[in-house]
C-alpha cells in the first residue's frame, strides 16, 4: 500500500510541473530557492555547516537554472539585469559557503525575495489582463 501511495504522490508531483505555465514554473523555482536558503540559514545557526553547504548548493542549482531560462536576445536589458542579479546571488551564496556566514546568505535571500515578489506581481497583471480580453 505504501508503494501505491508513493507512486500516486510522484504522479501528482510530475503532473503539477508538466501542466504549470512557464510563469508558474519560474515562480516554483523562486519558492524552492527561498526554501533552501532558509534551510541553509537554519543549518548555519544550528552549527551544521555540512547541511548548510548541501542546501546552498541546491539554491545555486536553482539560480543557474533561472539563468538558463533567460532569453537575452528577446529580453534585452531586462534579461541582462536579471542575469546580473542572479550572478550577484551566486556570488553571495559562494561567500556564505566559504565563510560559513549567514550574512551573505541573507543578502542572497533578500534579492531572491524581491525578484520573486516582482514576478508574482507580473503574473497577477497578466492574469488580470486576460480577464479583460
Automatic annotation (TrEMBL):
Task: Give the subcellular location.
Answer: Cytoplasm, Cytosol
Q: Which family does it belong to?
A: Belongs to the FliS family.
Where are the coiled-coil regions?
none
Superkingdom of this protein's organism: Bacteria
- Alphabetic keyword roster: Bacterial flagellum biogenesis, Cell projection, Chaperone, Cilium, Cytoplasm, Flagellum
**Which gene underlies this protein?**
fliS
The yes or no answer to whether the keyword Cell membrane is present is: no
Biological process GO terms, please? Answer: bacterial-type flagellum assembly; bacterial-type flagellum-dependent cell motility
SUPFAM superfamilies tied to this protein: Flagellar export chaperone FliS
- Per UniProt, what is one Pfam family of this protein? FliS
Name the GO cellular-component terms.
cytosol
What is the recorded name of this protein?
Answer: Flagellar secretion chaperone FliS
Say yes or no: keyword Cytoplasm present: yes
